[in-house]
Design brief:
Layout (H helix, E strand, L loop, with lengths): L4 E8 L12 H11 L3 E9 L9 H9 L2 E10 L3 E9 L3 E9 L6 E9 L4 E8 L4 H15 L6 E6 L7 H7 L3 E2 L19 E5 L3 E8 L10 E7 L9
Parallel strand pairs: 1-2, 7-8
Antiparallel strand pairs: 1-12, 2-4, 3-4, 5-6, 6-7, 8-10, 9-10, 11-12
């Protein structure tokens, strides 16, 4: 599996509502496809919600992009309407888990997907943290507890709602490498991006090759793509 190249994407899609206020799964799918991503972590994904035309967005985006889709719902209404994170993958999905994160506001979660590359497995984590700093601190602590015993090559993507210098991000950087440690690629708001709050972290199994934020009006966030190469247990070098 050494030498494997994988492009990971983190993208808060705001239930596919673009900057103009219109819901368009086709626009989000086109944005995803345009990045060439192999594995995608999506946040703010609806299932059968009236505000997004009662569509199972994860499944539909999977169909439009030709990828497998897994929804990690953190909110459920009457066993029908759901909302949360989702993962799209060009590789087969072998296992899926969804861990609730602590918080008093909107329900948040950490999605774990085991992906088979054909030569081995990787663990992809996808999350969306809260708006309150103290809440995020507890959520990061929980994420670090969940991931600390992970044996597989690991990637952690998501909307962390925190700037690069925030304590929460600095705590994660003590454990994981970051492709854009300086925060030079802002991801929010989409029309005039000024803040980096979306990230892709990874374990020392990976070497970063490139990272890029793609312009899109399909959501209020911009998609962040990171290309990684698997190098085993060698120390990761950030770029």
């Amino acid at each position: 599996m050494l030498g494997l190249h994988v492009t990971f994407l983190s993208y808060n899609i705001r239930h596919c509502r673009g900057t103009g206020g219109r819901v368009s799964l086709a626009a989000v799918a086109a944005s995803i496809t345009g990045t060439g991503a192999d594995v995608v972590g999506l946040q703010e994904v609806d299932k059968f919600n009236p505000r997004s035309c009662f569509v199972n967005q994860a499944r539909k985006l999977g169909e439009l992009t030709g990828m497998s889709a897994v929804l990690g719902a953190n909110f459920n209404l009457l066993g029908i309407v759901e909302f949360g994170n989702a993962v799209l993958s060009r590789y087969p999905v072998m296992d899926e888990q969804n861990f609730p994160l602590p918080g008093r506001g909107e329900k948040r979660g950490l999605q774990r997907i085991e992906i088979c590359t054909g030569t081995g497995s990787i663990a992809f984590y996808n999350t969306h943290l809260g708006l309150d700093k103290d809440e995020r601190r507890h959520q990061v602590k929980r994420i670090m507890t969940i991931t600390k015993d992970e044996k597989m090559p690991l990637v952690l993507a998501g909307d962390f709602n925190a700037l690069p210098r925030a304590t929460e991000i600095q705590e994660l950087k003590k454990v994981f490498a970051l492709s854009d440690p300086s925060g030079s690629c802002p991801t929010f708001p989409a029309q005039q991006p000024q803040h980096k709050i979306d990230y892709v972290f990874f374990s020392p199994h990976w070497l970063p090759l490139a990272y890029q934020v793609y312009y899109s009006e399909a959501s209020d966030h911009l998609p962040l793509a990171v290309k990684l190469r698997l190098v085993g247990d060698n120390p990761t070098i950030t770029i």
